[in-house]
Structure formats: C-alpha cells, structure tokens
C-alpha cells in the first residue's frame, strides 16, 4: 500500500489552478473582476494569440500596497471576506483569494501597481514562485501581464478549442461584464485591434450599442419592476428582433453574470406567444438583491448561484416584461405562423351545399349578351345535353365490370392499351416536348399536366386539363418563379453587381463582427462584398442585382439569418436568401393579361416544385370532374 504524504506547494498550486483557470478567458474574467472590486472606472484588456501568448489587464483602481503584493499571490489570501459570516453576504465579484495564485502557477506573471500618492512596485512571478521585485513608476491602479499560459502544463493545451473559439470566449466575458457595469469604461483589443470600447457614462442602452451594435440598440425597450426583496431594471428587444439561441440573454445579479434556467424561462414567459418557436429575445436584465438572499459559493466559476425566493423573482420578471410589451405597439402573435399551415384538399374545397344555398325561385337578371364560355365547359354542356341523365338511376358500380366511362380503371380498351404500352421502346428519340426541364425536376414536372389558361378571378388564375379545373394563386406562383430565378443566379456564381453612389456602412456587435469576418468568403458567394471599415464595421460599395430594393435592410437580414438560423451552412443560406428576396419583390397581385397568365402556367411546370412557393404555401388546387358534378348535385 502506497504511503500517504503531503503534496508540495507547487503541485497543490497547479491542482488548484485547474479548478479556476480552464482557458485564457478564465484569466481575463478573474483579473477584470479584481479590477472591478478595486473600484476601477477604466479597464483595458489586450491579448495576443487568443490569450495564450499574452494577456494584459490594466485598471485605475485602488492598487495594491507594497507590503501586500506577496500576500496577494498567496492561496486563500483576500481582502473581501474576513470570517464565515461574510461568506453569506458576499457583495464583491471575487472572494476566494485563489485567482492570482492560480494564474501565477501556470504562467509568467508581471504586476505593476501603486496606491494613492505612493511609489509603484513591479514584481515577477512564475510557476507559483516569486522571481523578483523592484520599484517602478506607476499611476494609481494595477497592470498585470500574463505570458505563456500553461507553459508548465502543456497537457492542458490539447483541451482548448480553436483560436477563434477562445477569442469568442474572451469577448463574451467582457461583453457580459460591460453590460453589468455600464458606468465603467471597457476597452478590449486583440493584437492591437479594438474589439470593444464602451463609454462608461452609465447609459445601459449606449453600452448595448457598443456591444451588439447601434442597429440592435435602437430596437431595445426598457423595463423595470420591484418588490420588497428585488429590484429589476433592463432592456429587452422587440418581439420582431430575435436570435436562434439563448446566448443573447444576460442575467446580471448584483453585477455578476449568472446562468439560471428558471429565470430564463421567466423571461420567455413574459413574451408569451409573441415569439415564434425556437426564437429567443435579446435581453439585459440587472437584478438588485440583498446579498443575504444569494449564495454565490456553489460553483468554481461562480456563474451558478443559489437564490432564495426564486419563484417570487421569476413572477416579478415575467410581469415586468409582459407589462412593458402591453405598453408598446401591439405586436403580432407568434402563433400566426400556424395559420399558414397547409390544409388537405378537402379543407381547401370546403363548400356549403345546403338546400338553401341556391334559391330556384329567385328572379334571374336580364341577360344582355352571353359571355364566351371556355371550350371545356362548352364540351361538357354538349355532352350532358346529348346524354340526359336518368335521375332515378343508382350510382352503385362494380369496378370489375368494363365500362365506357373513362373515370373508371377497367374499360373495354384496357387490354388493348396495355398491349400498346408493352410494344413501346424504353426511350424514344422522337422529340415530343420542346420544354427544357432538368433531370432532378422531371418527376415533379411530369406529375403536373399541361394546363390551358382559361381566365382569372381576383388573385387566382383559372386553368383546365382534361375536364378538370385548376385554381392557381398568381402571387404564390410568381414567388416560386422568382425564387427559382434568384436561386439559380446565386448558385451559378455569375452575379452581376450594381455600384452604390453612397457606400453603406454596417455596424455590428463584436461577436457578430468576428463571426462574419470568419465567414467572409462564404458570404462573398452571395455577391455581398464586405470590407472592414473601422471598429466592428464593414463597408458595402456594391450589391448583387437580385436585390431589388431596400439594400441595407436586405443585407442585414441576410447576414442575420446566416449567423443565427443557418449556422454558417452556405446551401441553406442560398435557399433562404432566395426565398426572402422573392417574397420581398412579389408583394401582391398584379393585373395580368391572358398571355402573361399563360406564360406563368407554362413556366411553373419547369420549376423544382410547381405546387408550393419557397415558404411552403400552396400554389394550385385541382377540382376534378367528379367533384364539380357533386357540387352541382349532378347524378342525384
């Protein structure tokens, strides 16, 4: 049996570091939280190589006294609590006294600090031990430089994600902290390039504009509420501004960013049916509560807390958001998307066939001139007049008996037709159709018969084939045709550009900016060319000609869908973009001539799906001869 022995100080420091320092973002979080606890009003964070090579955090806080620098880098040494009672009323972000000790255990750390009216001091730590100390010129505050993170624990490096992901983690940490402390000015830069800069003027909406972009901040509304235990304030997006994940919901408890499933649900309950399925709002909510009601010592990262009266807080949040929405302009319900679900053919053809619908005693209007009837109706009337129907005849039919009626499967010519079909060659060289239809669309096109244009009623085109009547929604048909045209243009990669007299500058939040920058090549395939232009901004000097109007709005909507709905999947984006632009360009019905109606019907057969538009809405409805006869009670 192995002997029990005490671990060395160096080893215990490395083990403790593993609990606190998981990645470069953990270092940034701990150092910035220390700066905030020190009363800083200006904090600057710079990092290189996703934070692995270097992280610098500088503030204008109270600084560390000369005789306390060594103590600050000792485990379980802190100025924020002094006894066990303080642990139950923690009012600071940090309190365990492990941050600096854990960071110095796995990196090279340099600290330059000074208190009010005192000479500054510079000290170096590496691998958990002090390497040197000297006087240094310094303003009040602290500057900590962390180099070569995990230099002595290289196994930790293989658990890190890609550099881009690690950068996004750092950006997210600073975003949350800046939203929790709008009165503090934050500056975040990556290898000298500024990713975030907040004013620190205490205006939360201004901070939201710095973090998420002015375009989003303009669509945020304020809300507030309080009771005997809690006070909440914040900003929430309007129901039409949503994201596909909950990552844009920031819950700040006494300035600390926390994760809480029940409070997230309370926010969603406040929006109720105003949000569509799998759509989440952008919300920043600051909760102020007595520290005695919160236990923050339940998780190493301190992002999970235990709350007293959590149900009461949830009800307060739900009510505050619901009341704020009621005070604003009435919004459409999120259930509206259920109203457009496709119904069955029976539902599409509901008619009231009660006896009172047609009153035979009604005086008929004078007929001045008989309108020209469609050919298929003239033939049907002639057939009915030549062969009067015996009203007493029963409609019971044995399907095994051959009949002349072509509505039945077995006819007298059945065997003859089968024999003829068997003699046909599998493929014929004779060109019977001049239409060009792609192979992938052949099955759908063959299922749609050749339709002859008859006329129009309001927004519907009338067509017929073999005695059957077809109703075609001209708006849905035109959108399908427009979708096919735009989608073919995008995928062909031969996109014509239209120059802008005045270039458009698009501002984004730093997270969105980084994602767009990372996927700039895929976006370029759409014909949208973005060039970096200042902090978290792109400039657009031309646009693809398939965008007809509202250029800036269209490009923003396209980029928003790419980031939040399609998760960077280019093919999904192509289809969604084509559908959005088709819907935008085809607003409603237009006055079509007979030639234009005929052309729409002809072109519809060549599309990949002639039955539905790009959003899945029905394009045409077929009413066969039997259904027409039943409507007019023929054969009864």
UniProtKB/TrEMBL annotation:
One of its GO terms (cellular component) is mismatch repair complex. This is DNA mismatch repair protein MutL. Residues 365-393 are annotated as: Disordered. GO terms for biological process: mismatch repair. The gene is mutL. The keyword DNA repair applies. Residues 453-592 form the MutL C-terminal dimerisation domain. Belongs to the DNA mismatch repair MutL/HexB family.
């Amino acid at each position: 049996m192995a002997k029990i022995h005490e671990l060395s100080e160096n080893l215990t420091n490395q083990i403790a570091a593993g609990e606190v320092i998981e990645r470069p973002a953990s270092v940034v979080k701990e150092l910035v939280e220390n700066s905030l606890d020190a009363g800083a009003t200006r904090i600057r964070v710079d990092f290189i190589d996703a934070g692995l090579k270097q992280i610098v955090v500088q503030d204008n806080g109270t600084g560390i006294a000369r005789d306390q620098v060594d103590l600050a880098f000792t485990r379980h040494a802190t100025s924020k609590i002094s006894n066990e009672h303080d642990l139950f009323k923690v009012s600071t972000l940090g309190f365990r006294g492990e941050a600096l000790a854990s960071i110095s255990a796995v990196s090279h750390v340099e600290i330059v600090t000074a208190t009010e009216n005192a000479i500054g001091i510079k000290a170096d730590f590496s691998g958990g031990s002090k390497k040197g100390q000297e006087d240094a010129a310094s303003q009040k505050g602290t500057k900590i430089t962390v180099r070569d993170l995990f230099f002595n624990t290289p196994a930790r490096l293989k658990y890190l994600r890609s550099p881009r992901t690690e950068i996004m983690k750092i950006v997210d940490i600073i975003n949350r902290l800046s939203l929790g402390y709008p009165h503090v000015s934050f500056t975040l830069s990556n290898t000298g390039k500024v990713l975030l800069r907040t004013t620190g003027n205490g205006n939360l909406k201004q901070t939201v504009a710095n973090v998420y972009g002015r375009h989003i901040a303009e669509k945020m509304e304020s809300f507030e509420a309080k009771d005997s235990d809690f006070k909440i304030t914040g900003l929430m997006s309007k129901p039409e501004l949503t994201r596909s994940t909950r990552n844009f919901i920031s819950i700040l408890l006494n300035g600390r960013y926390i994760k809480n499933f029940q409070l997230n649900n309370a926010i969603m309950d406040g929006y109720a049916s105003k949000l569509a399925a799998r759509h989440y709002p952008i919300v920043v909510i600051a909760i102020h509560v007595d520290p005695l009601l919160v236990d923050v010592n339940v998780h190493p990262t301190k992002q999970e807390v235990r709350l007293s009266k959590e149900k009461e807080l949830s009800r307060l949040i739900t009510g505050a958001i619901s009341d704020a929405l009621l005070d604003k302009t009435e919004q459409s319900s999120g259930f509206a998307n259920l109203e457009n679900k496709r119904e069955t053919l029976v539902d599409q053809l509901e008619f009231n066939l009660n006896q009172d619908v047609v009153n035979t005693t009604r005086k008929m209007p004078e007929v001045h001139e008989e309108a020209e009837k469609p050919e298929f109706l003239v033939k049907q009337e002639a057939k009915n007049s030549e062969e009067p129907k015996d009203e007493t005849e029963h409609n019971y039919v044995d399907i095994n008996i051959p009949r002349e009626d072509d509505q039945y499967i077995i006819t007298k010519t059945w065997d003859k037709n089968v024999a003829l079909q068997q003699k046909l060659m599998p493929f014929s060289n004779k060109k019977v159709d001049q239409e060009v239809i792609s192979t992938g669309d052949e099955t759908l096109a063959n299922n749609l018969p050749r339709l002859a244009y008859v006329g129009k009623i309001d927004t519907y085109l009338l067509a017929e084939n073999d005695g059957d009547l077809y109703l075609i929604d001209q708006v849905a048909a035109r959108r399908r045709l427009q979708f096919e045209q735009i989608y073919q243009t995008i995928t062909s990669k031969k996109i014509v550009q239209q120059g802008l007299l005045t270039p458009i500058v698009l501002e984004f939040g730093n997270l969105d900016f980084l994602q767009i920058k990372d996927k700039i090549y895929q976006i370029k395939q759409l014909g949208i060319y973005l060039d970096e232009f200042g902090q978290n901004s792109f400039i657009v000097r031309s646009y693809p000609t398939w965008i007809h109007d509202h250029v800036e709005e269209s490009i923003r909507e396209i980029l928003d869908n790419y980031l939040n709905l399609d998760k960077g999947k280019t093919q999904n984006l192509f289809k969604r973009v084509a559908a959005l632009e088709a819907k935008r360009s085809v607003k409603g019905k237009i006055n079509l001539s007979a030639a234009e109606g005929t052309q729409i019907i002809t072109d519809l057969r060549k599309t990949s799906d002639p039955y539905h538009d790009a959003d899945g809405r029905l394009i045409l409805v077929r009413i066969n001869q039997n259904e027409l006869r039943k409507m007019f009670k023929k054969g009864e």
